[in-house]
Structure prediction request, 860 residues.
Amino acid sequence: MVDERELFLYGLGLLGLLGSVASVIVGIFGGIFIALSAFLVYKASCYISTLSIKVGNLLSRYKCKRTSWYSNLQYGEVWVPNNVDQSLERLLERILTEYIDSWYSDLTPDAEFLQEIRICIRDITQNIIRRLSRVDLTEVILSDVVPVAVQHIDSYMWTLHHTKQDDTGKRKDLFQSYTNFLGKKIHIALTSRDAELEYLEELSKRIIPLVTKKTTSNSDLVNGLAVGLLSKTVLFNLLDTTCNPRTINKLLSLWFVPEPVKEYPSCKLPPVILLFRFIHKNPQNTRSTFHIDLSQILGDQDLLCHFLKYLKVRGGLGVNLLQFCLSVEDFNKRILVEKLSDNELKSLQAEVKKMYKEYMEENSNQFIHFQTDIVDSIWNTIQADYKDVVKLRTTPALFRAYEQAYNNLADNYCPGFHLSKQYLSHVFGSPFTDVTPQPYPKSTGQERPNKAKYSRIKNGLLGNPLEGSPEPSLNSGFNASSSSLQTSEDGDYLSTDPETRDLNAWRVEITRLETRISNGKSYFVFVLQVQRIDVASRLDGQDLQWSVARQYHEFYSLQSALVQYHGIFEDAKLPSRAKIFGGRGLDVLQSKLEPFQDYIRKLLQKDSLKKSDLLFTFLTSQSEFTEAASRLGLTRMIKSVPKKLTKERGQFLQPFIKSFTEASIHTDRSNIGSDCPDSVINKQDLYNTIYKDNFAQFFPFRNSSLGPSNVYTPDGIYDIVLYVCVRLLKVSPAITRMLHCIKWLVEGSFNHIVQYFISKKLNSLLNNGRVAFIIDVVEEAIFSHGEELSQAETEFLAERTLQLFRGYLPRILETLAPEGYHEGTQKIHSLLQEPRLNKQLVYTVLESVLPRIFPELKGS
Prediction:
């Protein structure tokens, strides 16, 4: 007899067996169903992907933020963070000092021209920032920069496909294959280094009229200076430095380093008007005879009438500023009365309300954009009791508003008024064209004016001295005088006669480093102890010893000047200047004491420099060498010994005169500067760079002779992801097919997500602290040249950058594409090590981005 317990156990076992069989059957059919469903979905997706059906952006409600790297832009005034303004000011001040003031100070001490240049530079910078504020940086990166970069990578990969490697792994015919593949699509600027300069100059000529005022763009002088500074000084040097593989590796190493990205704190100071200090920190001590301050204009009824006519001729711009200044002056005269009646106080409050309504309400026709705290303070005053209007005597709100309007008129409108027809007619009377000449009667005995007499007057007015007038004196730092001794600024008696001077008998020692303070900023100077034994002492030896303080950059200014006049001294060279990312702290400068001292001593041993004015000025003048050397003008050289000019200029004098004569006679620009070593950019130096002569040896470029077609254009970020998976990483076909099949469904949303996160990242990175740092890096790129690295150091830096790049990428890429991961990253890295190919990418991106900033260039 079977036990009930055993029967129960048998039943449970049978039930479990039946459940297992059922689950297996269900699992098989379920698996078949799931596989069949996935297969059907896959086939459906493949079919839909062949059609023009696309699902739009499902995340459109999450709008991407525009990059707000500028501070504020309202009502014609640009307000930027304080640190950004300081960085811009340093950059522009250095450009102005080294490329304009260096030669202009030779002509005249009048600073009015430099002030006009400052105003022009400020206007250009404001116009560029206004244009940049209309551009979304994220959209530019995704729509213009990234697609061009992918095209560049694709062209390079096809070039590698057609290029053979030698035994060492190098590709000697890389550039030949590259030009054969791209053909005429190689940028025109890369046909040669000369063509690159001409392209940048032509580009500058088209941009300058777009960012300058109409009255300024009509000036050939301003256009010439602006084109020269923008093309040869800024763009040319900046592009050379940017495309240098060493710079690229340095930047990528800083970005890919495992440590967190360096934080640049935002400036907590309130924003300032763009380049306000740049305009006002250099007041003009000497002004034109006909210059009149705005205060004089406001105080003279006749001048005020002419000034108002001038503003109306210009379209009425600035009339509201003038009316506001006059209203405030009238208000101040009334409020400064000690005892005011209630009616007078009410009248003053009504006048303040009227000024507020006319000039501070945004919907007013005469609106002036004042700072928010000024407007709020005046609003609180007019909302209080009428007796509180007297508080405007002590509160600075109304005064600050007046100062802002006054400075705007003085900076932007008065300079044009001084050259206007209204002002000149006031000063000189009616123009000659308005005066009808009276004919001399033939029958009378009235004598005609003597033509010779008028000729003498004309010559005198145009600058030639009239008969009997004294000869103008020459204001030079080291003027030749009747005495062979001249007192220096520190009391020493120095011989200025080059015939009695022998610098070979001078002794120099750099004794120490000292700290100096100027304009609230500290800096280091090298103290040079100088002793001479070429002449006899007249003051018990005190006149034969002195000390001179020189800054770091003054030594390089001396070297540049000597190279310009005497050529390169192979056995006397300064060490390379600091790197872009290097420093000039005490430890760095301390290491330069001995090299700088050896350099000066070797120069003093040169027979060709024994009577050099440049070296003499460097060792004697207490002013900054760049300023003092500029005073060694051609006038003083010619006025002294005739042979002196030839000795200082050396073997380069005759080619300079020949080139200058040809440039003055011939209009063909190809002759200008062809034989002149003193040009801004020496042609020989253009070819002795990592860029050689660009692709000149392959020019003229023909149609592409290698296939396949090189017109690949990605359509969005999702297309770029597919390209990277297929061409670079060589991901398995199953994954790429899946990505291609779901493209119609997720492409729009995926592109939006990428744009959203990039814009968010840019907003967090591009704070005003980092923007100020970028401006400082641009300054170093323009004016400083990093020291040359050896081949081993260059290869080490490149290899380190590659390893950091691979460590920065997500590990999942290496898992999905174990074979193509290392090869793809190696190709991208090797592409960045070719400077001429980097130039091709940069110029292509430049032509893609510029029409967004300057839409006027699209039709040109």
Q: What stands out?
A: Confidence is low (pLDDT under 50) at residues 432-493, 579-583, 630-653, 660-680. The CA atoms of residues 663 and 670 lie 9 Å apart.
